[in-house]
Write a structure and sequence with these properties.
Elements lengths: L10 H9 L2 H35 L10 E7 L5 E6 L1 H28 L4
Antiparallel strand pairs: 1-2
Helix pairs in contact: 2-3
């Protein structure tokens, strides 16, 4: 009965085998490069693209736009607003669309630099 069971290995041997597999190392490298690439894209969007986009968007502090639902009194006498912060949400949507476009065009440019097979 015991002859069909795989040999017992220690947890340390299993961990060592898992960590040296090519897929795990490739994933770790991809995460590190992705984080670095993310910093480049964020800087490009924040410092180059968004100033140009802000020229197209109406002036004012639209990211701080909100719909106040009410105010809550605290025991110390101060008031706290209960509000829907739709300006922040719209800002996040605009950021997402702009970052998506920048990544699309950046990857398209990098692909054009690659030699055809």
């Amino acid at each position: 009965m015991t002859e069909n069971l795989p040999p017992k290995t220690s947890i340390l041997d299993d961990l060592k085998g898992f960590l040296v597999q090519g897929n795990v190392i490739d994933l770790a490298v991809a995460v590190i490069i992705g984080a670095s690439f993310g910093k480049i894209v964020s800087s490009l969007v924040e410092n180059i693209v968004m100033p140009m986009v802000s020229l197209l968007i109406p002036g004012g502090q639209w990211r701080t736009a909100k719909l106040v639902l009410g105010q809550i009194s605290k025991p110390d006498g101060s008031l706290v607003e209960n509000a829907l912060m739709f300006g922040q949400f719209l800002g996040a949507v605009v950021d997402f669309v702009v970052i998506g476009l920048v990544i699309f065009f950046l990857l398209r440019f990098l692909k054009s630099l690659k030699k055809p097979d």
